[in-house]
Task: structure prediction
Amino acid sequence: MEQLIASLADGLLLGFVYGLAAMGLTLIFGVMDVINLAHGPIIALGMFAMFFLSGAIGVGLNPYLALVIIAILGLLFGFCIYFVAVHRVLNAPHLSSLLATFSVNMMIIGVGTAVFTTTPRNMDFSIGSISLGPVTLLGTRLVAALIAVLVAALLYLFLYRTQPGKAIRAVSNNRSAAELMGIPSTQTLALSFGIGSMLASIAGGLIATFFSFTILSGGVYELKSFVIVVLGGLGNPTGALLGGLILGGLEGIVPVFMPVSWVPVIEFVLFVIILMVRPKGLMGGGR
Amino acid sequence: MSSSKPAPADKALNRGGFNLEAIKLGGWKYPAFWLALGLVLIGGFVPVITGTNTWRETMFLILMAVSLASSLNIILGYTGYVSFGHIVFFGLGGYVGFYLIAVHGWSLWLAAPVGGLAAGILALLLGKAILHLRGAYFALATIGINEAVRTFVNNFDLFGGPVGLELNFLVYKDYGGPAAMQWSTYWAVFGLTLIIVVLSYGIKFSRFGLGLLAIREDEEAAMVMGVRTPSAKTWAYVLSAIVPGMLGVIFFFRNSSIAPPEAFRLHRSIEFIVMVMLGGQGTVLGPLVGATTYEALRSFLLTSPLFKDLQLAFAGLLLLLIVLFVPTGIVGWLRSRFRSLWRILE
Amino acid sequence: MSQNNGALLQVRNVTKEFGGLTAVSNVTFDIPQGQVLGLIGPNGAGKTTLFNCINGVFPITRGQIIFRGVDMTNWKPYDVVRLGLARTHQIVRPLQELTVLENVMAGACYGHEQRPLSQAEEIALEVLEFLHLAERRDQLAANLNVAQKKRLEMARALAARPYLLLLDEVLAGLNPTEIAEMVQVVLRIREQGVTILIIEHVMHALMNVSDRVIVLDHGELIAEGLPGEIVNDPNVIEAYLGDPALAEKLMSGG
Result:
């Protein structure tokens, strides 16, 4: 029982970070109906950015300070991807945007493999741990979860309290109507893509503080993001955070009862079943 | 993307959504068919003419890519459903066949059709379950299924779990030794390529194929026009799964081992989409041209010291350029440029 | 309840609800063999929804639809076509990347008679000739203009060789010359013995082709009769008052 609680708590902490990554994916889908298949590599780049900014052989910044720089880089990188690969295919059939973002995926992975190789990297970073009764929480994971919640809250404020945020929501609801009302859709779409990419890179940076990684590691989190996004409803950022917690919880609980290698099986079966019966997600398709 | 003259013959009145009568070949007199078939025949006999193993291995990979891409084209190009995780049929078929050979001592020639059958059955079941999903949802579901099967096989002791299965080299003795085995499997892949190219052509210029194209263009309208969309889509999916299943068995048999990462590699899956797109989706010739070009380019990049590591990035760049600038692919572009070539470039 | 009173299509107490909204409410009418029945009503009256109920695009909430003596309530659209009921769409839905000929062939292949390809081609050419589209047979449907796309939509439905044809605003968006041509086409289809149910906003044209007219308002059938009776029906005029332009058309159409 104690083991269950400890494992569940740990899973939930990770769930917040997964949820953050998934919010990036779902925001982009909600706004422009594009499934960003470069999501995983962006997460991986976030990991490497963290490694080089604050790792042993890096610049030596405090990891949480480095996160600010990673966020800015992620945003800019998202703009680049949007204008290079996505903008032209927005009104083309679905296959085009899937392939366009996947081509970015291949380029990042290709160059990344050549530059960084696939040797696992490790940050060797620790800020101790906190014990609450039987539960011991690793400091890095606890802080990561807190930051994930903070970023999610900031995103919420941005979307509901600021002009560009409201524009994003308007475009997400109905792009042509928003354009008629004078909302510059290209800027808004680029901004959404940038924010989506920013969220993914922050999540990557956070994950790097406690797991080892390679350029290919993003793929795992991309697939997790898909599962979460489907759990929470495609295009629904709040749902994504909740989906992240469900997934994190599952990852915490399942290994107590069966070998850990069954976790992804359960995740993907769940994913397919939800797509089959409730394609709008468990929470409905609301935006 | 379209025929200017459909196939004649076929007097029987067809009623089902799909039956073999419906794909009875027609249009033999049309050059497009002979062009496609001729290209495969010429390519297939190249290793005999040159007589070198290097050529045989190169052509083996190209023919395999052609038949995988052509299979995918049936559901992707004709029906308009983006099967992102199509590699699952290759992997699962491969596993079933490999298991029968390695553990139960079956002959390859029996195991390969069974592998194809397994893939077909999986497609039939999946068709009922996920083909009602549209657009991106279907694409995501196929990714999910590939990953679910991969992670499951990873845990499935009968199939060797994460290590997979291996073949005792002695088995090749039954096929006349490793050298003879490599030739006979080559001919098998060659045969399958011919079959899938003929099938692609037959489907495209059949009543069944017209129904698939209607679904691709506007599924609602197709339904209102009378196309039994659920069964037509399912059959297209099954047809696109069988050959990949058989190829999986042959490939991994030749390879003498099978493991989950190789069998269900998502990147490989998307490479087939690139091939179809590069050549021109929805055409018979497209996957042929696309797969050949892509494989040739890839083997060139792999052997070039400069590009070896960047091979994937290069493929990605190529894909992006196609998607942005020539979305109809090489054959589609040629068709729109030279209207007079319509009947040749189908 | 599949008694046949001689009518080709019997719509019995058909109701369609979307969530809490009733789009079609308890509608009952018959179409005898060989007639042209006009269906009019203000915008949003539920006319197209009624079409979608009849040909199976939407399952209905309550009621019964009997066609050629067969109860086909809640059949799938592709089964409805096979029984001999074809339709056009208000917003045309050509198969863009297929040629004109292929579009029409698909109609013949999968329509009432389920023709094999070779025969479908003959039928398609015949129908294209009839609709003056023959010279465009090898063009992509995407490259047609609006009037041609409307005719293509009609050709595809006709190639299905239906007993009953549902026409949804085939005149909308056409200029007066094109309208006159299309009216002739409708009349000639009728001469061939095809029964027609037609939704139309161009009133004078509708009044010319219809044997009888039914009027839908807020999903309910509010009037039924000869074209001359309908335009003078106080209920109908009232229903259209919210839509003065249409009311005017209606009056001038008589």
